[in-house]
Design a protein that fits this description.
By secondary structure, this protein is mainly beta. About 15% of the residues lie in helices and about 60% in strands. It has an eight-stranded antiparallel barrel with strand order 1-2-3-6-7-8-9-10. The longest helix is centred in the N-terminal third of the chain and has 21 residues.
Length: about 150
């Protein structure tokens, strides 16, 4: 009987150590919190000879577990290409399909045509993005790739 008790004690200690090493006990690792208001910027977006950026956009995010959604509003989208420069207001839209895994984050603005993916560090997020956008004549629909960053307000 003493031998069985020792085995149970050793196994219990091993399970406790394993759960502690994973960072969260029985509920798993802690998921970063993105609830709240964030300031979003897009930089170094380029493609088809055009370079763009966006600033002044606010995201309001609501998180449930490891998923989130919300809305965005405001900001100016500016592009330079072909010897010309133009700007437009971004307006409003939806943050969809948000997911958090460890320190990784991904979401889309309005549709799968605008995915953003990156990492969370404290109360900031950053990463890379692509977007398909119709810039009208003479450019038409192009794909831009670049960087994004967001900081909690």
């Amino acid at each position: 009987m003493k031998q069985v008790s020792k085995v149970v004690l050793v196994l219990s200690a091993a399970v406790a150590c394993a759960l502690t090493a994973c960072g969260g006990g029985a509920t798993g690792p802690r998921v970063p919190n993105v609830n709240g208001t964030w300031s979003l910027s897009l930089t170094n977006l380029s493609g088809s000879g055009i370079s763009c950026s966006a600033s002044g956009t606010t995201m309001n995010l609501t998180q449930t577990g490891a998923t989130f959604s919300g809305s965005y509003s405001g900001g100016t989208f500016t592009c330079v290409g072909g010897g010309e420069s133009f700007s437009t207001q971004l307006g409003t839209g939806s943050v969809i399909d948000g997911a958090i895994g460890g320190n990784s984050v991904s979401f889309e603005l309005d549709s799968p045509d605008f995915p953003l993916a990156g990492t969370i560090s404290g109360r900031s997020m950053s990463g890379t993005c692509t977007m398909r956008v119709d810039l009208g004549e003479p450019y038409g629909v192009i794909t831009l790739a670049g960087n994004w960053g967001a900081a909690e307000q």
